[in-house]
Design a protein that fits this description.
The structure is a homodimer. By secondary structure, chain A is of the alpha+beta class. Chain A contains 8 helices and 8 strands; from the N terminus they run αααββαααββαβββαβ. At the A-B interface, helix 4, helix 5 and helix 6 of A face helix 4, helix 5 and helix 6 of B. Chain A binds a DNA duplex through helix 3.
Chain lengths: 229, 229
DNA sequence: GCATGGTGTTAGATGGGGCTAACTATTAAT
DNA sequence: ATTAATAGTTAGCCCCATCTAACACCATGC
């Protein structure tokens, strides 16, 4: 059984590894991500290695083993189901769910997680649009679309996912009801990356600085072959 | 902020202190209660003391300070509301709720606890019949009645509380639907303390060994002045 | 192809929470 | 009033996760 601290590292490694398409994760990335010093990350990498949760090669980062991935996926599932539950049942906002879920994900039993999933009818995505691993820890593979900055002006786009890394950004977006499922028209894309969008059905222009627009993923629905989404 | 380990000790001290009507709690009691060795308890008592959570006198146990009591009461509230929620919403049995609540009570935010309370309409007792401290951490003072062994044969008694210390006992009782609110007729009280009861409306005799009968508290309803309960 | 900066690791310390072994108070029994 | 038994504490160790300081690797630029 990994400690909750080890769990945090494993989940962080999973997240970075996923973000960079399976690339090895370096100690410094984790140190940054978790806000610890570099030596702390190094030492945890070797602890994880000696518990067979990662394969670690000095000066060259680590990859999760099967066992390590299972631990991480369980946490991701717990986290995303908790977020979904908090949002659905208690009206938590997108920007609020993260911290609560981050604490509880380590301590909730598989049984209670199963209850949450059941109550929610086995959702496949969380409120940010991120996929929820199944009970057997498979990740439903789901198109994420493209970042808003990638679309041409005039396109209509449905939001598929909103990255949950920055609470400030999430708050900005959820205040303007730009959440998964929202349809947006791309009004303009400025050279320095700012995207202005207009939610379909609302007479409003919302400016999204490049940093924000890059955290919002969507799929075009004007001439797309998957209107079904 | 106390660590979760300190929280466990504070809650344990609170529970023993309450059970013994405010008497000082000795290190050995806590060592037993929490399954740690005596020196560990001693050392934690002085840590708690230097953080002003208890007043500790060597060789003479400790009492909670105001601050220590607040910490303990918050945990008790969290614990009991979690138990109530798990039972009410997910069909947990009396014997199952304890562990889940014991882990989560440390990590759930005040906000989420408030949501649970709200969803449950601010219950005043948990599924074992124990009082739930209010949001401002007052303990509603509620008669607990007497242990079943204290009643005369022939009396009809309504169960007010079932002590949650022993999961085996809880399972035995909840399998037989002897839970708070259940009405029982006392069929016999043997000299060695075994009480045989018959749940009102069921044609069944349930034998309760002394150890079990002492964990069930109730009030007589045959000639009582509080049929209202 | 070698110096140099950056990245990463080793060394050594710290604080929390736990343990065993050894010692000291307290209490009870004669 | 002593002493034996029990209860409680101190001493000293360990492991985990963290830190700072010092050192080693590596990938360049020249």
């Amino acid at each position: 059984m990994p400690s909750t601290v080890m769990e945090d590292y494993l989940k962080a490694i999973y997240e970075l590894q996923t973000e960079y398409n399976g690339a090895r994760v370096r100690t410094s990335q984790i140190a940054d991500y978790l806000g610890v010093t570099a030596p702390t990350a190094t030492s945890m990498f070797s602890t994880l290695e000696s518990n067979d949760y990662v394969e670690y090669e000095k000066y060259n980062g680590a990859v999760l083993t099967e066992a390590g991935e299972q631990v991480a996926l369980r946490l991701v599932r717990n986290h995303r189901l908790l977020e979904t539950y908090l949002t659905a049942k208690f009206g938590y906002r997108l920007s609020d769910v993260h911290d609560e879920a981050d604490r509880l994900e380590h301590h909730i039993s598989d049984r209670l997680v199963a209850c949450l999933a059941d109550e929610l009818d086995d959702p496949t995505t969380d409120p940010h649009g991120a996929p929820i691993p199944t009970a057997s820890l498979d990740v439903p593979d789901r198109p994420r679309g493209n970042q808003l900055s990638a679309f041409a002006e005039g396109k209509t786009v449905v939001v598929l996912e909103v990255d949950d890394r920055d609470d400030g950004v999430l708050e900005y977006l959820s205040n303007r009801q730009i959440v998964p499922e929202t349809a947006l028209t791309i009004e303009s894309v400025a050279p320095f990356g700012m995207v202005t969008v207009s939610p379909v059905g609302r007479d409003e222009s919302v400016p999204l600085p490049a940093d924000v627009a890059n955290l919002v993923w969507g799929a075009s629905i004007t001439n797309s072959d998957r209107e079904g989404i």
